[in-house]
From TrEMBL:
The organism of origin for this protein: Nocardioides aurantiacus
Protein name listed in UniProt: Caffeoyl-CoA O-methyltransferase
GO biological process, one term: methylation
Listed PROSITE patterns: SAM_OMT_I
The organism's taxonomic lineage, starting at the top: Bacteria, Bacillati, Actinomycetota, Actinomycetes, Propionibacteriales
Top-rank taxon, per record: Bacteria
Entries under Pfam families matching the protein: Methyltransf_3
């Protein structure tokens, strides 16, 4: 992977909404500037502009008012943005990185649950793993651990380099390989996790959920945090649904029907579902 920085494309429902409304406002401005342009009701025009401002300002506002990321997380984010993902060939892209707001949410959840053992399924360049490692280090010191699963060797090596340059990086234990195999090996070894962050291949989410609940990898009072459960709005806008959109819609229904859990879907970034084990 060589270095070429590009601006991330919109990948969340709010960012897509903002981009869409920005385009509507631009076309409105162009139409109004034309001498023969169709005159729009001024009240409708100002309502459209207000809707565009509401959507465009939400992410920057929530980020600005949340605790800033650590220098180590910022460095990891910048390193990820500087990679040439287009030439990667493995389908990885910088937009996969969760980032400041979601990282801060994960840190808060680790603190709130006093989690000492954390499992991440889908690490990429390590942003969320490092965010949770910073929190487990504060909660449990040297007893705190984040086990992070990643299938791609090159991206795992990049993450490991960043961890080695980070104060909390040595709390992270990286397992390279298909996450389902790692989960079964961990379960066979009797591992239990207080908090699990699920963020790997969307087609595998149902299998990961079953492995976590059936084997007891998710501790009795453990918290499961699932990313991308709104999948760019595809589950409810339909029409252009991708394989990932269909996988997430199916996963959300499986989760909603599972009597062993209670869950809440939060419209943070691309959707974050918090799952609490209630039985089984
Ligand atoms: C959305 S990214 C994870 C982003 C990361 N959690 C973060 O916040 O920066 C998904 C990652 O899951 C990995 N992945 C996909 N399929 C996998 C599998 N079967 N086992 C383990 N990792 C997998 C991909 O290589 C990719 O790096």
């Amino acid at each position: 992977m060589t270095s070429t920085r590009t601006t991330p494309r919109p990948v969340t429902p709010v960012a897509l909404l903002a981009a869409s409304l920005e385009d509507v406002v631009r076309r409105l401005d162009e139409a109004e500037a034309r001498p023969d342009g169709v005159a729009l009701d001024p009240a409708l025009g100002s309502e459209i502009r207000r809707a565009a401002a509401l959507a465009a300002g939400l992410d920057p506002y929530t980020a600005a008012l949340s605790t800033p990321e650590s220098p180590a997380l910022r460095a990891l984010s910048e390193r990820t943005a500087a990679e040439d993902w287009a030439g990667d060939g493995a389908g990885l892209e910088q937009e996969m990185l969760s980032g400041h707001l979601e990282g801060q949410l994960l840190k808060t959840l680790v603190h709130a649950t006093r989690a000492r053992k954390v499992l991440e399924i889908g690490m990429f360049t390590g942003y969320s793993a490092l965010a949770m490692a910073e929190a487990v280090q504060e909660v449990a010191g040297e007893e705190g651990v984040v086990v992070a699963c990643e299938i791609d060797e090159r991206v795992a090596a990049l993450a490991q380099e960043c961890f080695e340059a980070s104060p909390a990086g040595d709390r992270i234990d990286v397992h390279v390989g298909p996450a389902l195999d790692t989960l079964h090996a961990l379960a066979d070894a009797g591992a239990r996790f207080d908090l699990v962050f699920l963020d790997a291949d969307k087609a595998g989410y149902v299998d990961y959920l079953r492995a976590l609940l059936d084997t007891g990898l998710l501790a009795r009072r453990g918290l499961l945090v699932v990313d991308n459960t709104l999948m760019q709005g595809e589950p409810w806008t339909g029409g252009t649904s991708s394989a990932n959109g269909e996988a997430i819609a199916a996963f959300n229904q499986v989760l909603a029907d599972d009597p062993r859990v209670e869950q809440v879907v939060l419209p943070v970034r691309d959707g974050v579902t918090l799952v609490r084990r209630t039985a089984g």
